[in-house]
Amino acid sequence: MRNREKWVADTLVELADTLVPAFDPENYWLCVADRYQQLVPLSSISLVADSRQAAQPIVVNTDERLGTPEMTGLLAEEGPGIDCRTGGHIVNVRLDDVPVRWEKLVPAALSLGYLSVHAFPIRRRLDVLGTVTILTTGTVHLPTADVLIADALADVAATAMLNHHAITELTRTTTQLQGALSSRVIIEQAKGLVSARLEIDPSAAFLLLRRYARGHNQRIGALCEQLVARRMTVSELVAAVPKHVTGQGRRR
């Protein structure tokens, strides 16, 4: 890597930018995995991240050999990714020095030519979104500088994704509140229209609207929209409701 400092700066800016139109989480995590592969030469990346849109996590592999059913299953059952996520610590070891509990993954990885393995939690404080597992053909541990950069990339990615989730949820809530407010305004307008036309109290007008909506299996908001938009008249409303209802609350 010729200009390491520029690469780090560009990568951090790129990974931090999740507040864009039509943001795609899968493409984002693919970009994250690609950046890790650029950071660590002769490496293959397996990234697993939680998905808010689906029950299954997002899995990204930069090497098709890691995407086979056997390797996918092994990486999901044991290995650095599992230890990293449950323990919250970085893994940076040679395969011949790994714990005995990785008894299935180690021979499988060695058979593919990998000699070292590294893993980083994708987390922000107590929120763990996933892990990045790096398998390399080198026999040495990652240098301290690379470990720090790799850990920083994971932290930035976690923060950026959590920000995306927060903004998405805020937008959804705002839209729902705006919809509820608009619906309430329309209902009040319809109540006023019916109240004035029939010379009844607003509470009686609302009762009339509610009775009609229930009797016709219709949302009261949709009914009020019809009245306010003049797609339905008050006379049509009254004609479909029993007389004892329309007579209630008449102004003196």
TrEMBL record:
Residues 167-228 form the ANTAR domain. It comes from the Bacteria. One of its GO terms (molecular function) is RNA binding. InterPro entries: ANTAR (IPR005561), CheY-like_superfamily (IPR011006), GAF-like_dom_sf (IPR029016), GAF_ANTAR (IPR012074), WH-like_DNA-bd_sf (IPR036388). Pfam families: ANTAR. The keyword Transcription applies. The keyword Transcription regulation applies. Keywords: Transcription, Transcription regulation. This is ANTAR domain-containing protein. It comes from Amycolatopsis alba DSM 44262.
